[in-house]
Amino acid sequence: MAYLFNTPDDIRTMLETIGVESIEEFFAQIPDHLQLDRPLDLPVGMSEPELETHLRELAAASHGTSSRVCLMGGGVYDHFIPAAVDEIASRGEFYTAYTPYQAEASQGSLQAFFEFQSLICQLTGMDVSNASLYEGGTAVSEAVFMAMRATKRHDRVVVLGSLHPEYQQILETYLGGLGCQLDVIATPEGAADVQVVRDSLDSETSCLVIQQPNVFGALEELESLCQAAHDVGALAIASFDPISLGLLKSPAVCGADIAVAEGQSLGIPAQYGGPFLGILACRHKHVRQMPGRLIGQTVDQHGRRCFVLNLQAREQHIRREKATSNICTNQGLLALRATVYLALLGRQGLRDVSELCCRKAHYAAERLGELPGLELMFSRPFFKEFTLRYHGDATELIDRAATAGFDLGPALGRFPRLRESLGEAADQALLVAVTEQRTRQEIDRLVESLAATPATSDTPQTLGKPA
Amino acid sequence: MRNTLATELLFDLSQPGRRAACYPDSDVPERPIDELIPAAHRLQGEGPELPELTEPDVIRHYLNLSTLNMSVDTHFYPLGSCTMKYNPKRHERLARLPGLVDLHPYQRTCDQQGMLRLLHDMQEMLAEIAGLPAVSLQPAAGAQGELASLLVASAWFRSRQESRTRVIFPSSAHGTNPASAAIAGFECVQLNNSPGGLVDLDELTGQLDERTAVFMITNPNTLGLFETQIEAIAERVHDAGGLVYIDGANMNAIMGVTRPGDFGGDMMHYNVHKTFTGPHGAGGPGAGPIAVREDLAEFLPGPIVTRTTDDLGQPQFELDTPARSIGRVRSHFGNVGILLRGYCYLRTLGRDGVRQAARHAVLNANYLKTLLADVLPVPYGEHCMHEFVASASDLKQQRGITAMDIAKRLLDFGFHAPTIYFPLVVPEAMMIEPTETESKATLDAFAATLHEIAGEDPEFLRQAPHATPVSRPDDVRAARQPVLSWSPDDDVDA
To answer: Among A263, A273, A289, B427, which residue is least crowded by beta carbons within 10 Å?
Structure first.
């Protein structure tokens, strides 16, 4: 049997030592009639070669970013992952350890996470980062909880309609049990109107949640929006793209109180949406409201520098229902990947990736926007991702691109929250993201193939969905 | 043999002008950056001051750091409640197959069929092991599975126009249980310690009323004992109109032997990183799928994979959100990389292997418990399940040796420490879970070491560990003067 050690001889000796006749005796504490009297209805076990064949078949029935040229976005991006990231994350000493409760047996993980926290502070300009959350969406919800506690305002949360619609849905779920009002400010122009936001904030508002760049790829007036939040005594929460910070002003410079992010861009593969990396950093005064693990530096009994789990009195295993969050297991291995990625890039590498994405995205937007039946949906400045409007059903354009060997999207019509806010226009809209991996040649080929294969419906007047 | 130079902080190793990752020059027509991004949005100056290193710097740094860890691959790691079993290497290779590792969550459904089939079959296997028919793979970890389930319960009660406000749990419950209940908007009621280490049925009954929403119970419980009265417990909770939640942290003891749905559970979560050998990733990622009974299914968080048949009779897989779903608890589908490894594990073990794994886990725990009975007695229960909670209180009284001292000294001998001081019902608790993927020889050596430690000089033990890179960090200093990130003027070493 796979992975079991005990031979029949071992089992006999062990049972004798214990003083029982059979393994069944241990299970006597489970009433007989509750014990399953049949084998589980699972397939029979597989050897390693059989399993490998089976998984290869399943993998072959899916088509990931390596089978086509990937220009997909929506919070998950096809950035290059240096080999050294995989190499280090493949070390059994890291990935088969657990939460570093025993500091003396975990200095490797603890120091790596301390370095992660430090790198996130440098990236965001914030004072303190935790050691990771599940992913970018729950990081928004955890930041909102922090803001509610910090402001002692538990009745109202305001988010922009340009927040990732799945992040908004998570927040709706998380706030569902607490009776807090969630107001969403519409962003029909692709980014918020600062005056409209100002008018809707009030002294009950705990926080304003802003995504930068937002779900449409567009840039928000982040500084003015943070100021608007502060003017009513609310906290400003900025959900940022880590790669953008090689070019854009940091959340701290813009005035955000809490900065959160999806860290997938930092050396983490798409793997169908997870595991990813939730990042949360904040100003020093909010440190005791933070969720999750925090690693601290201290000295040992001989005066040597070392690292420990710190300020655990915030956490569920100590504070139980009064804890700042219910999170226990986090995303340590992904934090390690991000740490190695940022260490490999360094200050110049981050700037290079950031600028390459930006330049190539603008080239792609210009070329695609020239095609008949296609236009940029919004006129706002953008970073590496933009929203295209197609004079037809966006999913049809995505199909045509796939046939030509390119993955675009997502179509915005797939998100219920965006269909509510954009109406029928959502069905014509799709996202296109361009990373440093894309070449001019690929972008030109995409443009040529879309120009060469006109829409099957082929009628620019069929705006919106066919009847 | 330690390379202390390479394990200086990343920032101390940095040298201006070094770099590891290089990228090709831009190949698109050059435009002034001002035309692309208005200056008001752009950073001023140099931007983030990330360290500057070469690739060999980075590799040597992290590989040397890795050697400062204990791990399942390198050491016996009997951390109770965490199921630190062997992590099969085949999983790591298979998880990196193109088509799986590079699948974008917004790829077209027709491009996802292999992945969706895998996830669909994972849902079915988890439903079968739970004895509960409906599964959502969304939750990212056990704690999020708890929260999602409690929100499902809340929605179910609302749909029945019932307003129930209380969640009850035993004092030995994991801290995540009350923490999750609080976020889900419930009031927490904790039962007292019971003399036998099991839930006191009368005390529970006394707490049950029309306010009771959910009773959360870990079974086997955190003492490593099966709650023998679980059926009666479930009956009382159901009679009071409440739901029974099974915290599945300890499923490794009972998978294939008995099923939460068969012993009265209405909802449960799995910890795929524990029971189905995720692995643990130095603290995560995990995966916390939940299984619920039929009438709760329409409230599950989505998406969920459904199976249909196309015109040619071929199976087709799609994503679907249940009709009255509580919504999402995270973005995208779930922690798929971990679910995929769990799938590989279940397909490897198959219908017989799953049960065998549980039986061997329980055998190993009982064997180790027997070997330790004279130095570290177990106050509760005759036989244990997959783990046991021993007490060092005799050693403390007789010789002044604490659970902490023993835990620290074990590290010197190359054994990871058990979970200590949890659950609180056992004084000087040492929660030991050997798992099924350890040999008798390892268990013998571990027991012999504990006997040796029990005879050592207490003062020497108070200074332990002696052979580790650092020893007894100053936690008080860490908390009083928190240093949570590196800064250029840091001089703690001095």
So the answer is: B427
